[in-house]
Amino acid sequence: MIYQIKWKKNGTPIAGGHGSGSDLNQLRQPQGLFVDNDNTIYIVDYQNHRIVQWKSADTEKNEVRRWTEGEDANSNGTIVAGGNDAGNNLNQLNSPSSIFVDENYSVYISDHKNHRIMKWRKGAQTGMIVAGGSGQICVGDCANHRVVCWNEGSSEGTIVAGGIGPGESSDKLSSPTGISFDIKGNIYVSDHNNHRVQKFATDNNQ
């Protein structure tokens, strides 16, 4: 039997909703978000240069904060990364765009204007620039029109899709943004300027 999910027509603000601003109960042009298995919500607050784990009284910018289920939009966030103004030090972020949270609650951050991927372990005061980690990290390298993957311990990445200039042919990308994988390892790429989603199959699936 197939069940069809229906959603209520009206949404409920759970973070922000108090106008554009940098207070801890506000957001400014939020972009990506991540919901973990505990229904904790991590929010990319792009124009405030922070990501939010909703709970703290700190008012500085360039943060990672968290909101926990059961709190309302009037509550504040908890800083879990950044919060030390825009910059490129290991305790700073500059216009973060996307995040991922692993099973150990480490936060991986696409630190957009610093052209790097940062990892903050739970409770850490500073992050680390990562190339690899537990398994493999893959990044949509927007300005270079490619997807690059790093294996654990590698100092350089490997181009796995695109990387031959922008274009519309099937072997090219144009400003890729989001990426994801299925259980067979195939890569799905949000090919931004080509207005399409591309699938790059693993060799044994082609």
TrEMBL record:
Cited InterPro entries: 6-blade_b-propeller_TolB-like (IPR011042), NHL_repeat (IPR001258), TRIM-NHL_E3_ligases (IPR050952)
Biological-process GO terms, alphabetical: proteasome-mediated ubiquitin-dependent protein catabolic process; protein polyubiquitination
Superkingdom classification of source: Eukaryota
GO molecular function: ubiquitin protein ligase activity; zinc ion binding
NHL repeats: 18-57, 173-203
Keywords assigned: Repeat
Protein name, as recorded: Uncharacterized protein
